[in-house]
Specification:
A five-stranded mixed β-sheet has the order 1-2-5-3-4. The two termini are 12 Å apart. It has helices at residues 6-17, 21-41, 48-64, 79-91, 133-142, 166-186, and strands at 103-106, 110-116, 152-158, 194-199, 206-212. The chain is of the alpha+beta class. 41% of the residues lie in helices and 14% in strands. The chain has one domain: 60s Ribosomal Protein L30, Chain: A (2-Layer Sandwich), CATH 3.30.1330. Helix 2 (21-41) packs across helix 3, helix 2 (21-41) runs parallel beside helix 6 and helix 5 packs across helix 6.
Length: 227
């Protein structure tokens, strides 16, 4: 089936998730600010080309980030997917089941983990939870050099902004993602294998993690998603 041009796919993507142009621009701005924050705490020099890569990558990821929530693939039972799933379970020493409020599944591209934000952050959302250390250590290892071939990790905010207070909601999500991203880098995660996104079809106040086997994303924290 023929695919529409890139600019039409972007318009369709925005229409599908129900965001007007003002809200979309606002959320994009906050994600760009996160990119600068993570670059800053990672001791990366602000070279013009690298900054432009970060901005371009974030914008591209936001416009099409919803594709990361495809249903479980019929190919997910292949040996490679099973090995990746087991590798994730070995590094994250927390029960990945529905009773714990955390759901891990195979998708078309990797392992997806859905969880409430309060599994990693304090309830006020302003600091990392003391109990989140094992989780974050495991994730940092997966995207670092401590467990064989490093993997790529996408952190996504679930839900769409409430119409009554979109600006405050977007700011809160940006702060949450920046806390988690900077903490992972501080624990040894490779900043080139970390990206940020937005998952409007996921539950609000949920964090979606997508762990994939792919080349390093250096250094944009995002990439153009395949249609």
């Amino acid at each position: 089936m023929p695919q529409p041009p890139d600019h039409q796919r972007t318009i369709l993507s925005r229409a599908a998730i129900g965001l007007d142009s003002t809200t979309h621009a606002l959320l994009s701005l906050y994600l760009i600010l996160i990119a600068f924050f993570v670059l800053l705490v990672s001791d990366v020099r602000f070279e013009p080309e690298r900054v432009q890569q970060a901005v371009t990558g974030i914008r591209a990821s936001f416009a099409s980030g919803d594709r990361l929530l495809d249903p479980i693939s019929p190919e997910a039972t292949k040996d490679q997917n099973v090995r990746l799933f087991e590798r994730v379970r070995r590094q994250i020493p927390v029960s990945l089941d529905h009773t714990a409020g955390v759901v891990a599944t195979n998708t078309q591209t990797g392992v997806r983990i859905d969880m409430p934000f309060d599994r990693l952050l304090r309830r006020d959302g302003r600091a990392i939870s003391a109990a989140a250390g094992p989780w974050l250590d495991g994730l940092a290892t997966l995207i670092g050099a401590g467990d064989g071939q490093p993997l790529a990790l996408t952190l996504m905010v679930g839900g769409t902004p409430p119409s009554a207070d979109a600006q405050r909601w977007a700011r809160a999500q940006a702060e949450r993602l920046s806390l988690i991203a900077s903490d992972l880098i501080g624990r040894g995660g490779d900043r080139g294998r970390l990206r940020l996104g937005f998952a409007p079809r996921a539950p609000r106040d949920h964090l979606i993690l997508l762990i994939e086997e792919e080349e390093a994303l250096n250094p944009a924290f995002a990439r153009e998603a395949a249609p």
